[in-house]
Amino acid sequence: MMTIRFTITLLLLWCFTLSAFAENKEFEAFAQEQSQLMHKAYEKKDTKAYDELLTTFVGRYEKLTLQDKKFYSGYLTNAYYNLSCTYSLLNQKKEAITYLDKSIKAGYLNYSHILEDTDLENIRKEAGYKALIQPLRKVGDYPYILKNAAAYNTNDKRPVPVFTYQAATDPNLVTLRKTFNLDSIAGKGNEVSKVINMMNWIHNLVPHDGNHGNPVVKNALSMINECKRDNRGLNCRGLATVLNECYLSMGIKSRFLTCLPKDSLGVDNDCHVINMVYINDLKKWVWIDPTFAAYLRDEKGQFLSIEEVRERLIANKALILNPEANWNHKDSQTKEHYLDYYMSKNLYVLECPVSSEYDTETQAQGKNIEYVQLLPLEYFKNKPENKGSSTNNQPKVTFTKYVTNNPTTFWAAPAK
């Protein structure tokens, strides 16, 4: 059966990083229409119609800016992949392999799905298919990549700023707490129940929209009001930002965490942003994902941190996803897709701001935003002896990034 998984991933889970945002509404509308027409051609196994549609699409795609090409590359990879499926179903093996190759070169890296997709059964034994699949494992088999990236270096002493958390007495956070009556939303239960109640509130209040950027002003008050006014949603970064500020306003220590793939080919623009919330009773950070209203527990029912989830994925230990996890109350999440595929891919590189505070990423003249990135030693660009940090200058704001191989530094508990 042909996959539309990559299209869904593109539309639902896209994470816009600070340096890689693009939005071309005219092309987006065109791309969505062409995708629907190509899907109909696939269903009819009409390769002539499909090829004509693809030629038209590629012609428009090639005229995009480099940034827009990178942003909308998912449409291209999906188009190539599904044409490969169409040719395979027709037993036209040479053409099927040609378009599978084009899809992989354009950025389709879902190794596990290619192996499972019944549309490709007719080309499994072909030498050309095997030649494409064998090297793909190192860039597209995400559990395999994660397991080979297990090592960190607890002796890494490179200087990294101390993580800080804005006090709940900050006037903006006080206003946020009162405006949305967060005490009532959190409830009177224990810390974990309050954290989950607030996650569910955000999940229900603001829909996830992974196909557009977030508002220019990136704080909880402004973004929630803009979403209500314009009947719009936020991408995963926006949702995690809003939830993070709500937690801070309640005196709960939290960071929003960008989870990224290894992406040694430089073609995977996707990432996912979640929250790490410190639970004093448990003396650890807990995984909280407002996009999917998701959290994780072990076989004993213990809530798990991001660090523990990553370790358990590598070690093939039990992970239990809460059964209510969903996307916009439309699609339930399974452990197999959410963790074994999607988050296995996106738990390779981890990054968060140094200062967890109100309005962290709203750009302003002269502002400096600092990030710390945790890398495994196996990372393809990583040099453990490198003690430097990189600075990226934008027109209005400077982004400074510190790198560490030391998980102890990155997962440090907040000061009391």
Shape: globular
Number of H- or I-type helical stretches: 17
Percent helix = 40-55%
Percent of sequence in beta strands: 5-15%
Question: What is the SS-derived class?
Answer: alpha+beta
The Rg value, from CA coordinates, equals 22 Å
Q: Order of strands side by side in the largest beta sheet?
A: 4-3-2-9-11-13-12
Average predicted local confidence, pLDDT: 90
- Counting DSSP E segments of at least 2 residues, the number of strands comes to 13
User: How many angstroms separate the termini?
Assistant: 54 Å
How many structural domains are formed by the residues? Answer: 2
Poorly predicted spans: 1-21, 385-390
List the secondary-structure elements in sequence, H or E: HHHHHHHHHEHHHHHEEEEHEEEHEEEEEH
How do the helices and strands line up, and which of them pair or pack?
Blueprint: H1 5-13, H2 25-44, H3 47-61, H4 66-71, H5 73-89, H6 93-106, H7 111-116, H8 127-140, H9 142-147, E1 164-165, H10 171-179, H11 182-186, H12 191-205, H13 220-230, H14 236-249, E2 254-260, E3 272-279, E4 284-288, E5 296-297, H15 306-315, E6 320-321, E7 326-327, E8 331-332, H16 335-345, E9 349-353, E10 355-356, E11 367-374, E12 390-393, E13 397-404, H17 407-410
Parallel strand pairs: 1-10, 11-13
Antiparallel strand pairs: 2-3, 2-9, 3-4, 5-6, 7-8, 9-11, 12-13
Helix pairs in contact: 2-3, 2-5, 3-5, 5-6, 6-8, 10-14, 12-14, 13-14
Describe the structure.
The chain has 416 residues and is of the alpha+beta class. The chain has two domains: 136 residues, Serine Threonine Protein Phosphatase 5, Tetratricopeptide repeat (Alpha Horseshoe), CATH 1.25.40; 247 residues, no CATH class. A seven-stranded mixed sheet has the order 4-3-2-9-11-13-12, with helices on both faces. Strands 1-10 form a two-stranded parallel sheet. Strands 5-6 form a two-stranded antiparallel ribbon. Helix 2 packs parallel to helix 5. 41% of the residues are buried.
